[in-house]
Write a structure and sequence with these properties.
Length: 152
Amino acid sequence: MRIDEIVREDTVILDMKASKRDDAIRQLSKVVAPKTGAISPDELAKGLILREEKGPPTATKSGFAVTHCRTDIVDGIFGGAARLLKPVDFHEPGGNLTHLVFLFVDSKERNEDYLRLLSRITRILSKEKVKEKLLSAVTPKEFVSILAEHDI
């Protein structure tokens, strides 16, 4: 499954106004949860925040976070992304702030696909030029196209 089939235009928020990690997670949960047809935004945010608190951290020193969780409630992989208007503290051990947030939720049954997805998005975002393009994307469509272009 390609990342642009999971992170779609209608699950991308550009220039999100969030002052804290949990606020960003809650806002992104509001656009991703309805796509699942099974989990509420509050339930999704609660699961993601719990996962963040248990660790390990999902934020990287490179300025992006890939917050994720697994649940029995959903059937399949769902995701979204946000570009933050102002970077926030996602509790990265080095103290670096987060500019891009990706959110993924999957059923507990699909371990292999889930781990592959997390690996692919991390690999894509580790490229500085890709991050720069995502940070300057004008529309959600352009944002998703950039992801698709680098999802090899």
